[in-house]
Design goal:
The complex is a heterodimer of chains A (457) and B (253).
Chain A lengths: L6 E5 L6 E7 L4 H9 L4 E4 L15 E4 L6 E5 L4 E5 L4 H8 L4 E2 L11 H7 L6 H4 L6 E8 L3 E6 L5 H4 L8 E8 L1 E2 L4 E9 L2 H11 L5 E7 L5 E9 L18 E2 L2 E2 L3 H8 L2 H14 L7 E5 H5 L17 E4 L1 E4 L3 H15 L5 E7 L12 E9 L5 H17 L3 E2 L9 H7 L2 H14 L8 H5 L7
Parallel strand pairs in A: 2-4, 3-4
Antiparallel strand pairs in A: 1-2, 5-6, 6-10, 7-11, 8-9, 8-10, 12-14, 12-17, 13-14, 13-20, 15-16, 18-21, 19-21, 19-22, 20-21
Helix pairs in contact in A: 10-11
Chain B lengths: L21 E5 L4 H12 L3 E6 L2 H10 L4 E4 L8 H12 L4 E4 L10 H13 L1 H15 L3 E5 L12 H21 L5 E6 L18 H11 L4 E4 L2 H12 L2 H4 L6
Parallel strand pairs in B: 1-2, 1-4, 2-3, 4-5, 5-6, 6-7
Helix pairs in contact in B: 1-7, 4-6, 5-6
The chains are: A alpha+beta (457), B alpha/beta (253).
The complex binds flavin-adenine dinucleotide (FAD) and NADP nicotinamide-adenine-dinucleotide phosphate.
The site of NADP nicotinamide-adenine-dinucleotide phosphate (NAP) has 30 residues of chain B, from helix 1.
């Protein structure tokens, strides 16, 4: 078989960005290093859960690291766990929870791998409290073109640069995380309903006090009303809930087998029905509001895994996620303005998720003292250009207010737009890092090229 | 002072605008191939045009902005794998390949027959096979071969030409059988006489090349063997069904 038979069509999770590349999946860290040392241009890929073009690039070698998923070491008394880069959050919690530990930071899907998590420095619904994943990485081993394998820990000057380097400088081989001890597999969850943008933001702000997690779902069709959830680890629940069987998500949703639910969603996934779904969700939430209930860690954390393949309901055009991070004092103004622009343009996000953040020092970090709002837009051929225009106009406003965007979710921003977000110091850190570890620019991706990061000097 | 260059990077395209964004046309310096490049480019397809005559390629490149051109002799089969990968890189991917290179010459000596076999059939093999391997893995793509009605029945006067086109039809049929369940379209175009340099010396009814290519590009979107006119479809369906003992008694050259 020819080289051409290795070409595969890679898509971002959201199905919007695509590229054909020569795919190879190394079976060991040694094989990974051997291939990397002989390659010209490479894009790294693992779970493929980034929304845009971060884990793909056309016509070059794409190394799929999903096979590198050994859990190497675990210390039951310190909670330090070492695993290979391709290990998913799903594999990690299944290992850790029965032993009394939970992951300090998780993403909305459990399919994220350690490598993808460190490359993007992912955050959870607890970023305001415990920071992003990088703050829990005790040690990391990276392969770099100039120095081969190197190891970093919190004292290493490049630890906070390599974490967050978008797969553009080094390949993570393995990492050691400090896990969180938990007494049970349950959270106590409280829900709160809000009527306007102002209310949603101020309620998230006051409600998060003393809580471990906080997240808001926002109805953009109705201009900012929302349903907020706060959660705390529950030390008093039955310890038997640490067992995997007590965590697993149900196999049916409303009587329909989970694997088929995306088909039902596809029917609903249009502006009219979605307006109704959002309204119903808000109205029906009346039952849970004000009361505290108990929910499994997995159920609360990986809500989006409930319906496998839900992103397919956006086919064939896919979806674009747009997630601005805005300083806290201007968040209400900016978010409500973005919402008005969507209503005016007739292109309203089908889903809006609100989170609270705190600043950190990782490279390209979007985290600041403020809020992020993740918006899902459906792409339809007839209105694709109008949607892109709207997104660029909204981005301009976000930048005007000192806001930022998150690489893992972005699929549309141009290098000129990104230049408004990256300060001089960040660009210098990136340039120095590249000079030191990947002077020839061996690592690349659609995102790195689109953001112009391969061309900075 | 760090600065981000402001050159805009071309967007990695979205699936809904995906059909035939990038194409390779082998044998694009005159006649049908050249017209294919013109019409595809006018529709917004980014093309790579190949052939031996450099002056023709230069002329085309001046006429069509962003056209990728490469001089290439299809007899040099060993150079194809690298060239194929290089063109895909330059185009940023591949959605369509058309093998159009062909020779029709008077078969004065056996070497003439051999040359037609080499250009029309052997030269096609690496291009079609590499595209098949690639598109199978990708799960999308279109492969087009320009055959000929002359490959349907081998008349007395053109053993080499007919054999080469019949061979090409069979090769494409095999690829179609392998790939049609994988989302890949393999289509065989069987033109009758078209007005080009190749047929200049023949006096017969010929289809204008623009018309032929318009029809060809429409039909090529569907898997299967296609004629360019309903009359040809009818006539050649009948001719193909005629048993050999009768066929050889027909008053055909
Ligand atoms: C439903 C859903 C919910 C999500 N929720 C959240 C969320 O709550 N918070 C959040 O922060 N993110 C979230 N994400 C985004 C996701 O967590 C990130 O995009 C993450 O990077 C995906 O990891 P992956 O393993 O799938 O990596 P890929 O998508 O395959 O790759 C992502 C990046 O990591 C690089 N990379 C991969 N492996 C390595 C390695 N070993 N070494 C170096 N670089 C590597 C790639 O080159 C690429 O740049 C969500 C995504 C989805 C689909
Ligand atoms: N015209 C008709 O009536 C008719 C009917 C049925 C089928 N066809 C088929 O249609 C195709 C195009 O024919 P046409 O009528 O357009 O003829 P044409 O004008 O002579 O074009 C033939 C093309 O093939 C290329 N070619 C020939 N030998 C080549 C080689 N060794 N390497 C690379 N390229 C080579 C030529 O390019 P260079 O010379 O620059 O290399 C030219 O671009 C042929 O396959 C032909 O068999 C034509």
């Amino acid at each position: 078989m020819s080289d051409q038979s290795r070409v595969r069509r890679l898509t971002g999770f959201a199905g919007y960005a695509q590229a054909d590349a020569y795919v190879h999946a190394p079976q060991s860290l040694d094989e990974l290093a051997a291939i990397l040392s002989h390659s010209e241009k490479v894009v790294l890929r693992a779970g493929g859960r980034s929304y845009g073009d971060a884990a793909l690039a056309p016509e070059i070698l794409a190394l799929d690291l999903a096979q590198l998923k050994r859990i190497i070491d675990f210390n039951e008394s310190t909670g330090l766990l070492t695993a290979q880069a391709g290990t998913t959050l799903d594999e990690l919690w299944r290992f850790a929870l029965p032993r009394g530990y939970w992951l300090p930071v998780v993403t909305g899907t459990s399919r994220t791998t350690l490598g993808g998590a460190l490359a993007m420095n992912v955050h959870g619904k607890n970023q305001f409290k415990v920071g992003a994943i990088g703050e829990h990485v005790v040690r990391a081993r990276w392969w770099t073109p100039s120095q081969g394998w190197i190891e970093t820990d919190a004292d290493h000057p490049d630890h906070k640069n390599l974490i967050g380097s978008l797969g553009g400088v080094a390949a993570l081989g393995e990492a050691t995380l400090k896990l969180r001890k938990v007494e049970s597999g349950m959270l106590s969850v409280t829900a709160l309903r809000t009527g306007t943008w102002e209310e949603s933001l101020s309620a998230l702000e006051s409600g998060r006090q003393g809580q471990d997690y906080a997240v808001g779902w926002i109805d953009l069709f109705a201009g900012g009303r929302g349903l907020l959830h706060f959660a705390q680890y529950d030390p008093h629940a039955d310890p038997a809930t640490l067992q995997r069987e007590r965590q697993d998500l149900p196999t049916r949703v409303m009587g329909i087998p989970k694997s088929q639910v995306w088909r039902a969603l596809k029917i609903l996934n249009r502006p009219g029905p979605m307006r109704l779904v959002n309204s119903l969700k808000w109205l029906l939430s009346g039952r849970e509001v004000g009361r505290t209930h108990s929910q499994s860690l997995v159920g609360f954390s990986f809500l989006l895994d409930y319906v496998p393949g839900w992103e397919r309901s956006y086919a064939p055009g896919g979806l674009i996620q747009f997630q601005p991070f805005v300083p806290k004092d201007s968040a209400a103004e900016v978010f409500s303005r973005l919402n008005e622009m969507q209503l005016e343009a007739g292109q309203v996000a089908h889903l809006g998720v609100l989170k609270r953040h705190r600043p950190d020092e990782f490279l390209f970090s979007p985290n600041l003292d403020g809020f992020s709002l993740a918006l899902d837009f459906r792409v339809v051929r007839a209105t694709e250009q109008a949607l892109l225009d709207l997104l660029h106009r909204m981005a301009a406003i976000v930048f005007d207010y000192g806001g930022r965007f998150y690489a893992a979710k972005d699929a549309v921003l141009t290098s000129q737009e990104i230049a408004r977000m990256l300060d001089k110091e960040t660009v210098e850190r990136w340039i120095d890092l590249r000079k030191k570890y990947d002077p020839e620019g061996r690592f690349t991706s659609g995102l790195i090229e689109r953001w112009g990061l391969n061309r900075v000097s | 002072m760090p600065a981000i260059e402001s050159k805009q990077h071309p967007k990695i395209w979205s699936p809904i605008t995906m059909t035939w964004k990038r194409a390779i046309i082998v044998g694009a310096t005159s006649g049908i191939g050249e017209e294919i490049v013109r019409q595809l480019s006018a529709q917004g397809t980014q093309c790579a045009a190949l052939g031996r005559r450099e002056d023709r390629l230069d002329q085309l490149a001046r006429e069509i902005p962003n056209l990728v051109v490469r001089t290439h002799d299809v007899l040099q089969t060993s150079t194809v794998p690298d060239l194929f990968a290089e063109l895909c890189r330059e185009l940023g991917g591949l959605d369509l390949i058309i093998y159009n290179a062909g020779l029709l010459t008077e078969p004065a000596e056996w070497e003439d027959d051999e040359r037609m076999m080499e250009i029309n059939l052997v030269g096609a093999i690496p291009w079609l096979r590499l595209a098949a391997d690639r598109f199978e893995g990708v799960g999308a793509g279109t492969i087009v071969g320009i055959g000929s009605v002359a490959g349907d029945r081998a008349r007395a006067g053109r053993p080499g030409y007919s054999a080469s086109k019949a061979g090409l039809h069979a090769y494409l049929e095999s690829l179609r059988n392998r790939l049609s369940r994988r989302g890949v379209v393999v289509s065989t175009i069987k033109p009758g006489p078209v007005d080009t340099e190749m047929t200049r010396h023949l006096s017969m009814n010929k289809m204008p090349v623009q018309t032929a290519v318009q029809i060809l590009l429409k039909k090529a979107r569907k898997p299967g063997e296609h004629y360019l006119s309903p009359v040809h479809a009818a006539v050649f369906t009948i001719l193909r069904a005629i048993p050999s003992p009768i066929f050889r008694r027909l008053p055909l050259e």
